[in-house]
Amino acid sequence: MAAIAFANSANAFAPATTDKTIIVAVNTRTALQMGLFDAFSKAFENNDYGPPAESIKASARHILVQSEPEAKVIMKMITSGESTFEDCARDYSTCPSASKGGSLGTFGPGTMVPEFDKVIFDPETQVGELMGPILTDFGFHIIILDKRSGGGDWY
Fold first, then answer.
1. Which of 47, 85, 88, 90 is the 20 to 30 A CA-CA neighbour of 152?
2. Cα distance between residue 148 and residue 56, in whole Å
3. pTM for the whole structure
4. Are 57 and 149 in contact (CB under 8 A)?
5. Helical spans, DSSP H, in 81-144
6. Listed residue (31, 36, 51, 28) closest to 3, CA to CA
7. 37-53: burial string, b at 16+ Cβ within 10 Å, e else
8. In whole angstroms, what is the distance from residue 77 CA to residue 128 CA?
9. How far is CA 155 from each of CA 24, 50, 115, 126, rounded to the nearest angstrom?
10. What are the tens digits of pLDDT across the range 102-128?
């Protein structure tokens, strides 16, 4: 462990007796010198609590329809096993993603409309869970979250 030497004289910055000694000048004309502590100070800061927003990503699929009753019928078809999500997306979705089974690919928060993001990036939403109908300006969405990453402990 390093020793700390205090000095009140002009010799405060003279070479120390050992190379592990840190000299702290306490008179008013000299600056506080903490070379060893400066090197480690960033290691103990909490500025980066959690991942940066750009590293948070999700992958999801959706089916977009114009009415809530239609969305509920499609959800029943999927949950009963009568049809797969991908088939329903191709047959009923009005979104261009229908040709890809409703896949929206990978995206970050703020890419989709707020109502959609609220569901996708909600820690309560489980991967693989069928969610909906979710009303947006585009219509009613049936959503499945395929993957979410970068959210630290809250995912």
1. 85
2. 8
3. 0.64
4. yes
5. 85-92, 114-120
6. 36
7. eeeeeeeeeeeeeeeee
8. 16
9. 46, 12, 19, 9
10. 999 999 999 999 999 999 999 899 999
The confidence band for 42, taking pLDDT boundaries of 50, 70 and 90, is low
Nearest partner of 131 among 60, 39, 25, judged by Cα: 60
Q: What CA–CA distance (Å, rounded) separates 148 from 108? A: 9
Burial zone of 59 (CB within 10 Å; 0-12 exposed, 13-18 middle, 19+ buried): middle
pLDDT band of 46, cuts 50, 70, 90: low
Residues β-bridged to residue 5: 23
DSSP string of 26-72, one letter each residue: -STTS----HHHHHHGGGG--TT-S--GGG-EEEEEEEEES-HHHHH
Residue 96 structure tokens = 């261009």
Quick: pLDDT tens for 65-91. Answer: 999 999 999 999 999 999 999 999 999
- The tokens for 29 are 């004309």
Report residue 5 as tokens: 């030497």
